[in-house]
Design brief:
Blueprint (H helix, E strand, L loop, with lengths): L2 E9 L2 E10 L2 H6 L5 E3 L8 H5 L3 E7 L5 E7 L4 E10 L5 E12 L5 E7 H4 L15 E10 L2 H23 L5 E4 L5 E4 L1 H7 L1 H8 L3 H5 L1 E3 L4 H13 L9 H10 L3 H13 L6 H10 L3 H12 L3 H4 L3 H4 L4 H12 L9
Parallel strand pairs: 10-12
Antiparallel strand pairs: 1-2, 2-9, 3-4, 4-5, 5-8, 6-7, 6-9, 10-11
Protein name: Speckle-type POZ protein-like
InterPro entries: BTB/POZ_dom, SKP1/BTB/POZ_sf
Organism: Papilio xuthus
């Protein structure tokens, strides 16, 4: 049973929520492979009204041996906040893990905050042991919520603007170009919107290209993928990123959509297993997804290498460079590890 210490204070227009989350016997929790998620307890000492007005926290354990720990939080209200995560060490020391500047958070939706690695939390060679003397893991969360009315109005305006622009895609009003999927499905779109979001699409209209004269773009994407890419271009949202992250990563790389690429990397990281690690690494390498490549190599290095060499993906590897990359990363100390 974990313990929670929850305090709040007001400084000007900012409400500061500080949470100390202590998880006892954390190594035992990690070694329980049947445990894939751990959440803050809803104390019986508080009324339902108090519970529902507070931030909730959870950990998700990934990898065969719970090697990767992802930290999430849930806000009871839609707010504009800054989040800070700190690990409490021995002798009252602290180490900041992540600081996310002010951004909009929607109510009752789990928000990703940080990733921790088992070997950093409890390495047995005496380095970077992020545990207290009694074996507990103590995390300090600070959520700085702005009560500035001007900021809140700005967020509402941005949301409405996003919806209005997305409606242009759905109704095709004033469209001046057509995009076609490989199957021949057509989408009525707008040069100004496409050009403002993608340098690749912008190039279609800047020079004396065929598209300039025909007002038609032949896309190499399947209809399902093209529809999702256009949805992202118009709304900055990717509803199917968890369903088809591999195809969307390739599309994001092709059209140079960096934020969509980041969403795909995050989705693929969540799906990472021993069986698909090699395929994920090859995909990351092919599409220059540096963050995903780093996380996948960390996953392989962190005790999974022997298991991965027995998978079908490993048996099909033909790239000597990829094998060399894995070997060098495994043999390199953490402080020297770098992805080229």
């Amino acid at each position: 049973m974990s313990s929670i210490n929850y305090t709040t204070r007001i400084e000007g227009q900012t409400r500061i929520n500080t949470i100390l989350w202590t998880v006892p016997n954390f190594i035992n929790l990690l070694e329980n492979r049947s445990c894939r998620e751990f959440r803050t307890d809803k104390s019986k000492d508080h009324t339902l009204e108090i519970i529902e007005s507070r931030f909730q926290l959870k950990m998700q354990f990934l990898g065969r041996d719970n090697d990767i720990i992802e930290i999430y939080y849930l806000s009871p209200n839609s707010v504009f906040l800054k989040s800070i995560l700190t690990i409490c060490l021995k002798r009252f020391e602290e180490r900041s893990i992540v600081i996310k500047e002010y951004h909009t958070v929607h109510a009752n939706k789990w928000q990703y905050l940080a990733t921790l690695f088992k070997r950093d939390i409890a390495s047995y060679d005496g380095r970077d042991i992020f545990l207290l003397s009694d074996g507990s893991l103590r995390l300090k969360f600070q959520f700085l919520v702005s009560n500035d009315i001007k900021i809140d109005r700005s967020n509402v305006f941005e949301a409405q603007l996003s919806n209005d622009i997305e409606n242009l895609l759905h109704n095709g009003m004033f469209s001046d170009v057509t995009m076609k999927s490989v199957e021949g499905d057509e989408y009525k779109v707008h040069k100004a919107v496409l050009s403002s979001r993608s340098a690749v699409l912008k190039a279609h209209f800047e020079h004396n290209t065929t598209e300039c004269f025909t007002n038609s773009i032949e896309s190499p994407l399947e209809a399902e993928v093209l529809r999702e890419v256009l949805t992202f271009i118009y709304s900055d949202k990717a509803p199917k990123v968890d369903e088809i992250p591999e195809k969307l990563l390739a599309a994001a790389d092709y059209y140079q959509l960096s934020r969509l690429k980041g969403l795909c990397e995050e989705a693929l990281h969540k799906k990472l297993t021993v069986d698909n690690a090699i395929e994920t690494l090859q995909l990351a390498d092919l599409h220059s997804a540096k963050t995903l490549k780093q996380l996948t190599l960390e996953f392989i290095k962190d005790g999974q290498a022997k298991l991965i060499t027995k998978t079908e993906g490993w048996a099909k590897v033909k790239s000597v460079e990829l094998i060399k990359c894995i070997y060098e990363y495994i043999m390199t100390d953490d402080a020297e590890a770098d992805i080229k």
